[in-house]
Automatic annotation (TrEMBL):
NAD(+) binds at residues 21-26. It comes from Streptomyces benahoarensis. HAMAP family: L_carnitine_dehydrog. It catalyses: carnitine + NAD(+) = 3-dehydrocarnitine + NADH + H(+). Residues 17-192 form the 3-hydroxyacyl-CoA dehydrogenase NAD binding domain. Its EC number is 1.1.1.108. InterPro entries: 3-OHacyl-CoA_DH_NAD-bd, 3HC_DH_C, 6-PGluconate_DH-like_C_sf, 6PGD_dom2, L-carnitine_dehydrogenase, NAD(P)-bd_dom_sf. Keywords: Cytoplasm, NAD, Oxidoreductase. This is L-carnitine dehydrogenase.
Length: 326
């Protein structure tokens, strides 16, 4: 990382945010920033993007009202622009949420760097690419120092966590600025000092996900069994206590030391036999069919509403319904 400071305004003074790519995650970011009282510009090349985006924001709004809107927050503060350049022209922060394709991210981030006012930080929502692989090189007026990863969780308007990490050419101050900005904007931030594949949370989720796919591929468990095993089991604990402290309690008063001495040897076998499953057509279809079966009569909109209410109930029950001020 380099040391140069890119920030043209303090994180506390940001009023205008641009969201580039307005699908599931970009739309979720738009809803979050609007609820926090920012003026938001959005751009997405899909012909029906504005209609879809406004529907996503409207569907999220009841949940956001329950959480508490910032003063002046309004869906009317969203402007969908015809071009990327218009979206970022006056932005004080840019959140990119385009499809997870490396070449697309590279060229889009270079285009954003060229179009965004000097010094404004540009964050990518990527769920796994290191910024080092996506950011432009120094030279030809490029400013890779202001590019960071700001990895959110779905939906960004309800799940607090954002993982922030820079690439090799990112300025240390851009990482610090982004972390502070997300904090001011109501997110819960983990700032990483090095790039890891999948960052922290996805690396953990991917381990769980890999095993879920193995079990479905081998007919060892249904999709519903797998989901119930988490929602009726460890998931209840994980909403307020992470896997490490949770397992420390499994060691009784002897804590993590006793837990590792007791269970470590028996866990060695599962740890060392794990490999990625082959995601072939058969497994893909089995997962799709299993999810359709688990959803039953519930539509996508029903499931989104159910999930949103569930997350709000958990946040409320665990005392984490934050303030509305930014
Ligand atoms: N879906 C998820 O659960 C999560 C996704 N992410 C990340 O967020 C990013 C976006 O993913 P999703 O929202 O799920 O995808 P999506 O497919 O729902 O949305 C992508 C949007 O980008 C637009 N788009 C296509 N080409 C573009 C371009 N050149 N410039 C700008 N926009 C363009 C599409 O029209 C679409 O609306 C990815 O980097 C993904 O890894 C991060 C956390 C969670
Ligand atoms: C499925 N996913 C890898 C894109 C998920 C994420 O990146 C984070 C999340 O919302 O769980």
């Amino acid at each position: 990382m380099t040391d140069t400071t890119p920030a043209p305004c303090a994180p506390e003074d940001v009023r205008r945010v641009a969201c580039i790519g307005a699908g599931v995650i970009g739309g979720g970011w738009v809803a979050h920033f609007l609820a926090r009282g920012y003026d938001v510009t959005a751009w997405d090349p899909a012909p029906d993007a504005e209609d879809k985006l406004r529907r996503l924001v409207a569907a999220a709004w009841p949940a956001l009202e329950q959480l508490g809107l910032a003063e002046g927050a309004s869906q009317d503060r969203l402007t969908v622009t015809a071009t990327l350049a218009e979206a970022v022209a006056d932005a004080q922060f840019v959140q990119e949420s385009a499809p997870e394709k490396l070449e697309l991210k590279r060229s889009l981030l270079a285009e954003l760097d060229a179009a965004t006012p000097p010094g404004v930080v540009i964050a990518s929502s990527t769920s796994g690419y290191p910024m080092t692989d996506m950011q432009p090189q120094h030279g030809d007026g490029a400013d890779p120092g202001r590019l960071v990863v700001g990895h959110p969780f779905n939906p960004p308007y309800l799940i607090p966590l954002v993982e922030v990490v820079g690439g090799e050419s990112t300025a240390a101050d851009a990482v610090a600025w982004s972390s502070r900005f997300y904090d001011v904007a109501g997110k819960s931030v983990i700032t990483m000092d090095r790039e890891l594949p999948g960052f922290i949370a996805n690396r953990l989720q991917e381990a769980l996900w890999r095993e879920a796919l193995h079990m479905v591929a081998n007919g060892e468990a249904t999709v519903k069994d797998i989901d119930d095993s988490i929602t009726e089991g460890p998931g209840l604990r994980w909403a307020f206590m992470g896997p490490c402290l949770t397992f420390a309690l499994a060691g009784g008063e002897g804590g993590m030391g006793h837990m590792l001495d007791h269970f470590g040897p028996s866990l060695k076998s599962p740890w060392t036999r794990l490999e990625a499953p082959e995601l072939d057509r058969e497994l893909r279809d089995a997962m799709v069919d299993g999810c359709e079966e688990a959803a039953g009569e519930r539509t996508y909109a029903d499931l989104v509403a159910e999930r949103d209410q569930g997350v709000i109930d958990v946040l409320r029950a665990t005392g984490r319904l934050g303030g509305t001020a930014r």
